[in-house]
Design a protein that fits this description.
The chain is an alpha/beta fold. The chain is built from three helices and 19 strands. The protein starts with a helix and ends in a 22-residue tail after the last strand.
């Protein structure tokens, strides 16, 4: 009897030690596996083993908090059940073959801080629900085929620091609500089909360091309000339809290291501007159109910016 009690006690302790994720979360992971051809993944899951042992799944306190499945040959669409993984903080599906749309149920992931589905084959507009990710700090969706307009709800992501949407097919104007992203450090929107004028509300992102809208259809004069972004280190607006004189306040951008404004229709003493910016290492204002050029100044970083 004593031995039996000890055995039961050990089993109970083991249960407390290892625990298990909820049935709902496990079923959500299985839905992801099934919808993205899990049997063809580079590193697949043994569904008979505990979730804690599944490749790329991070579990803490019996809750799934991370999915790291980059370079893993995911093929197919993301399932609606992804929204049931409500404790997720980080999703990394970089460099796979995911198609379709980001499911609207993404709005359930209130704790999500990083969403990286870059270098895939997403081909639907961003859902309006993307704006409900109230904890999101990094949104990386570059190198897809995302179309449609950028939803105005993007302005609800008040904690966002990094927005990388370059090399997609996003159309329409950049919504003025972008100015609500007051904590933004990097905004890379190059090689899309944006049009209209740059919203003056961009100046609200006082800590912005990188702004790249290369290779779009933006037009008009450059708003002088951008010159209040004194922390800017990279300003890349080449290959658009901007025109007129650059604001006199450009000299305020003393931290600029990269300024690319070529293939627009700017007027004035553009050569002289370089003399006013002491830290400028790369400056291009020449109008020589070239097809098929892709410029991104992004560096893949895993650590958070402070």
């Amino acid at each position: 009897m004593k031995t039996a009690k000890i055995t039961l006690l050990m089993c109970f302790v083991a249960l407390l030690s290892f625990g298990s994720v909820s049935t709902e979360e496990k079923e959500a992971l299985q839905a992801l596996y099934n919808s993205t051809n899990g049997n063809l993944w580079r590193t697949t899951w043994d569904l008979e083993k505990p979730v804690q042992e599944w490749y790329g799944v991070v579990v803490k306190d019996d809750k799934v908090i991370e999915l790291n499945l980059e370079f893993n040959n995911l093929r197919g669409e993301l399932p609606e059940e992804l929204g049931n993984l409500v404790h997720l903080k980080h999703i990394n599906f970089f460099r796979n073959k995911i198609t379709g749309a980001i499911p609207t149920t993404i709005s359930n992931l209130k704790s999500l801080e990083t969403l990286n589905i870059s270098f895939n084959m997403l081909n639907a507009p961003l859902p309006n629900e993307i704006g409900e990710l109230e904890s999101l700090r990094k949104l990386k969706l570059f190198m897809n085929a995302i179309g449609g307009e950028l939803p105005t709800s993007i302005g609800q992501l008040s904690n966002l620091k990094t927005l990388e949407l370059y090399n997609n097919q996003i159309t329409g104007e950049l919504p003025s609500t972008i100015g609500n992203l007051v904590n933004l450090k990097e905004m890379l929107l190059s090689s899309n089909q944006f049009s209209g004028k740059l919203p003056s509300t961009l100046s609200n992102a006082k800590g912005l360091k990188k702004l790249s809208v290369f290779d779009n259809n933006f037009f008009g004069t450059l708003p002088s309000s951008i010159c209040s972004l004194v922390h800017l280190e990279e300003l890349v607006i080449s290959d658009n339809a901007f025109y007129g004189k650059l604001p006199n306040e450009m000299a305020n951008l003393v931290n600029l290291k990269v300024l690319l404004i070529g293939n627009n229709d700017f007027k004035g003493e553009l050569v002289e501007l370089q003399k006013q910016l002491p830290n400028l290492a790369q400056y291009d204002f020449i109008n020589i159109k070239s097809e098929g050029v892709i410029v991104t100044l992004d560096e893949e970083e895993d650590e958070d910016d402070n």
